[in-house]
Design goal:
single chain, about 110 residues, alpha+beta, elongated
């Protein structure tokens, strides 16, 4: 798995600490997972430490907020993991509004990766 978290240090300790916490949250929530259209276990970003699966909305927001740049592999895997197939049709898991925001996350991923 390739994860490119840039180093950042400023003269503001509070900002430095917040950045380190955010970077740690990203790394700490990437686990091997398989579901949906992701046919084998691969690194995915789960919804948080108290969760054991990715959530559609969280996936899209994380990708929108730079996960697609930090780790294209994790982004793609997680997008696929929240897609479901039923009777030959593919649908986005979750509620209707999750489908809308998933599309925004997928678009953000596609902006940087073909």
């Amino acid at each position: 798995m390739n994860l490119n978290i840039p180093y950042m240090e400023t003269d503001n300790k509070l900002l430095n600490d917040a950045y380190r916490i955010a970077a740690g949250d990203i790394v700490g929530n990437i686990v091997y997972y398989q579901n949906g259209l992701l046919t084998e276990e691969k690194p995915c970003m789960i919804a948080g430490l108290d969760y054991n699966t990715p959530w559609t909305r969280d996936t899209a927001i994380n990708i929108w907020n730079a996960l697609s740049i930090l780790s294209p592999e994790v982004s793609k895997n997680t997008l696929l993991a929240v897609l479901e197939e039923e009777e030959g049709n593919i649908y986005i898991g979750g509620q209707y509004w999750d489908s809308i925001i998933w599309m925004i996350g997928a678009r953000e991923y596609c902006r940087f990766h073909k």
